[in-house]
From TrEMBL:
Family assignment from sequence similarity: Belongs to the GppA/Ppx family.
Domain Ppx/GppA phosphatase C-terminal: residue ranges: 321-426
GO biological process, one term: regulation of transcription by RNA polymerase II
Protein name: Ppx/GppA family phosphatase
Domain Ppx/GppA phosphatase N-terminal: start-end pairs: 38-305
Domain of life: Bacteria
A family per Pfam: Ppx-GppA_III
Amino acid sequence: MNTMTNRKAIIDIGSNSIRLVVYSYNSLQGLVEHHNFKTVARLSMYIDSTGNLNDDGIQLLFETLKKFKEILEDIQVKHVFAAATAAIRQAKNKEEILAYIKSKLGLSLNILSTDEEAYFGYLAVIHSTKIETAVTIDMGGGSTEITLFVNKELIHMHSFPFGAVSLTRKFMKNAEMTQEEIIQLREYVNEQLLSLTWLHNVQVPIIAIGGSARNIAQVDQQRKNYSLNGIHQYELLSTDLQEISSQFAQCSLVELKKIDGLSSDRADIIVPALETFRLFMEKVNAPSFIYSKRGLREGIILSQLVEKFPLEFNLNEVGQNAVRHVLGKFNVIEEDTLHLYAIFTSIYDQFVEWNYIEPLENKQLLRFAYILFYIGEHIDQDAASQHTFYLLTNFNIDGLSHEERLKIALLASYKNRDTFKQYVSAYEKLIHGNEYKKLRDIGALIRFTKGIDVLGRSNIKDVMLTKSTEKIVLTFSVSGNCLLEKYQAEKLKKHIEKIVNNQLELIF
């Protein structure tokens, strides 16, 4: 799929907001988001006592879609899928709404069933995280979709006919929720959750989708002064939700709007959403609450792409694909980054056996770091280390936890011990104890191996290691000329000598 000429648009007509997002996909760069426009519409607030979306709500929908259509015409995007969820789905006059929009704008609205909405969220999650078994919760403005998947296979799904906006409308009489109203809300949500026996005490992570979950994750990052950028796959504990709940309980609406990380247009509906998440976490007895940036819209796109490109969407290779797509942003082919990787792993394995290096628990991270080593040189070769570290600590990389992404950034950007110390200093809360030395030494080994691959087509074929009390000897088997490799190896061997605390002899 050509990035520039095959862009597709998703219009997500939710109960709280209406959003237009334009995507494209190609195998090199993956799914690329080009544009993202949002209008806070609160359509569920326009459902009248008879169950119809009233005239004001219909007009608001029309004006928003008219504006979006003009944008699409201006940027010449013709492929549009407009998905309507709870607010339109629950409206008794939905057929009239569809006919009106079609006649006025020529735009066909697709009303998603509750099962479709739940499925698309699940699909987005399993293709953007490595978590094999979990419960998802997608809390919108007018409905809440729940799924349970095991080994990435969908087992159960359910939709509750309430969301952040409708709960606010039902239980909050004034600008702020009273303690009595919160108690009534909790009783109602608990009663709803009791019906889902498959949910009770399953003790798996919760993966949360949607704007309310995103805001809660952002608030947690701000209050912790969290140093690593990116929100996708950010993890909270039940104690975090409790502390945020206590913080919100002490705030007026005006004060809530000033909280860092909380959108002012969501401040009035965040308390019902948070209380629902807390009760949900208790019912599941979940060890963690993880935010997924990928949700309904990505699920709709993925449902088309998985069918068209099945080999590029292996559920067991989410991290591998994401790393390949990072390379693709710089037009780098993965195979071109793996020269001398076998040499690196031979030295690494021997150093682990000799107790010079403590091994990484996840050896796959070694490969990712090696592949991404000095990716920043494609921005500026003189500042390759700095750009690499900045890029990898700011990119969202599907299938990698925040801690794993930081480890890869430290390994892939290694220049020397001083710069490593400088990089780690901002992330001391995330890198603990012996992790520091382990990552530093592995980074130095990657730096050495990558450094001797001067031309990207090294003649080094194998390596043999021997040691004595006086020195470590690395004997490289080569075919052809290796003058440049010898020069670089002698220049960089100091990185290895610091690991082994011994002299290093190089034989070619």
